[in-house]
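Example for reference:
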Amino acid sequence: MIDPKHYHAPPGLLKDRVILVTGAGAGIGRALSRACAAHGATVLLLGRTISKLEKVYDEILQDGHPQPAICPMDLGVAQGPAYDELTEKIDQEYGRLDGLVHNASLLGDRTPIEQYDIGKWQTVMHVNVNAPFILTRVCLPLLKRAKDASIVFTSSGVGRTGRAYWGAYAVSKFATEGLSQVLADELSDTTIRANVINPGKTRTNMRLQAYPAEDRSTLAQPEDVVAPYLYLLGPDSKDVNGESIDCQ
């Protein structure tokens, strides 16, 4: 059995695949987008900050990889028409979707439930849970057209064991695990698979928000945790469904 943590992706693993990555402008999303492109994929870069997406776009082209596409969307405020426009463009340009990676998340407040701001709670739950549900739902017809399609959700250690002061973020990641499991069971007789990844301690801006005093030199770089994502997005994992995988 392949160990996703030590997976060595062959050069053409994702050749001719169309993969949508949310939160593609920075951190793990940026590293994964570049890695997918390096392995042959056409990457659809979704995020809310166009300048960051443009930078990743340029990096991919400068490396000589397939031309990506920029998909500006603020998951915190996007409504139905924005999702319809996205899927229509994907349909027109590519006719299918081979991979969907839910990477974008909000940390929210690190505070007791008793003091948690209600508006902030709703925002975190929307971006971390509702938006991935909506995006998955509208993309399923495109995913069904792929020979073997993969949906990858991003979770956290606090999405498996609750911890004080992690509030909406922890609860949203429990929901992420549940959404993936329900979806995996519903899709078990199809060519689409759904799995969850826990990246672990990684040197990202979100990690810095959560642990501002932490020694960042001890943390894995985003590029160090992409192997399990590549495994789940490629054909080697076509029989893997309903799993929750640790990167570290």
